[in-house]
Amino acid sequence: MTAFNFRFDNTYARDLPGFYVPWKPATVTAPRLLFLNRELAGELGLDAAALDSEEGAALFAGNQVPEGAEPLAQAYAGHQFGGFSPQLGDGRALLLGEVIDHNGRRRDIAFKGSGRTPFSRGGDGKAAIGPMLREVLVGEGVHALGIPTTRALAVAATGDSVFRERVLPGAVLTRVALSHLRVGTFQFFAARGDLDKLRQLADYAITRHDPDLAGTPDRYLALLRRVAERQAALVARWMNVGFIHGVMNTDNMTISGETIDYGPCAFMEAYDPAAVFSSIDHHGRYAYSNQPLIARWNLARLGETLLPLIAADESEPATAEAVKQATAVIDDFPAVYAAALLQGQRAKLGLQRAEAGEDEADSALAEDLLHLMHGLSVDFTLAWRRLADAAEGNEAPLRALFGQARKLDDWLTRWRERCAAEDAGADEAGAQRAQRMRRVNPIVIPRNHLVEEALAAASDHADLGPLNRMLEALRNPFEETAENARHAEPAPTEVTAGYRTFCGT
Question: Residues with catalytic annotation?
Answer without folding.
Answer: 251
